[in-house]
Every structure is written in structure tokens, then in C-alpha cells.
């Protein structure tokens, strides 16, 4: 969970990535199955708040993140994200040094 991680507190929804915690099994049209993790990467970049600033904002404007997203969309500045997948065959999963189903671990991402 990003909120309780060591990456900082996201400055609203537009400036944060999203990750599927679980590993899913995808099957194509000819029945070949692979494991998959989903990654949603912000095209706006990452922006975080300092703890003091986040505390102040949460007290003064608890709807800050929603309001920021709404205002951005209203002025035509539509936020975008890239959906990426990390695919692993069953054989690669068996040979993996760590458990690919462990929610507390991040698999090393090697783009092909």
C-alpha cells in the first residue's frame, strides 16, 4: 500500500502509480497460460508531499486529492496512465528466487 510505504505521501491521484498486489493467471485464445502482475504508471510523473504538508492539507481540505483531480479534468488537463504488465511463465515462477505470489515483495522489472 503506497500510503504506508516509504515512498512518501502522493500529492493526489494524478501523481501516483498503481500496482496490482496479486499475481494473476492470464490465458490466451489458444489456452497458453502465464502469470501476470499489473502496473499503472502515471504519465504526469510522481509528486509526493512532506509529512507536515500532508497533515496540514488533510486537516484543511480532506477532499484535496479529489478536488485536484476534478479541477484538472475540468480545465481539459486529463491525467493519463500507462498500463503495463509483467509476465512470467509457470517455469519462470518455479525458478524465481523469491515467491512471486508474496504480496510483501516487489519483483524486479526487466523490460524486454
Automatic annotation (TrEMBL):
Query: Which Gene Ontology MF annotations are present?
Result: metal ion binding; peroxidase activity
| Entry keyword set | Heme, Iron, Metal-binding, Oxidoreductase, Peroxidase
- This protein's source sits in the domain of life called Eukaryota
Q: Does the keyword Amino-acid biosynthesis apply?
A: no
Pfam families according to UniProt: Catalase (PF00199)
Using the record's annotation, list all stretches that form the Catalase core domain: 1-112
Family affiliation: Belongs to the catalase family.
- Identify this protein by name: Catalase core domain-containing protein
Native source species: Gnathostoma spinigerum
Amino acid at each position: 500500500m503506497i500510503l504506508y510505504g516509504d515512498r512518501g505521501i502522493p500529492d493526489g491521484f494524478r501523481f501516483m502509480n498503481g500496482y496490482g498486489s496479486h499475481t494473476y493467471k492470464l490465458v490466451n485464445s489458444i489456452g497458453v497460460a502465464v502469470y501476470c502482475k499489473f502496473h499503472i504508471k502515471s504519465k504526469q510523473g510522481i509528486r509526493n508531499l512532506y509529512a507536515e504538508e500532508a497533515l496540514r492539507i488533510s486537516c484543511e481540505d480532506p477532499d484535496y486529492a479529489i478536488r485536484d483531480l476534478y479541477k484538472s479534468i475540468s480545465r481539459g488537463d486529463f491525467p493519463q496512465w500507462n498500463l503495463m504488465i509483467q509476465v512470467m511463465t509457470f517455469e519462470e515462477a518455479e525458478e524465481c528466487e523469491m515467491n512471486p505470489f508474496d504480496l510483501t515483495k516487489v519483483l524486479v522489472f526487466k523490460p524486454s
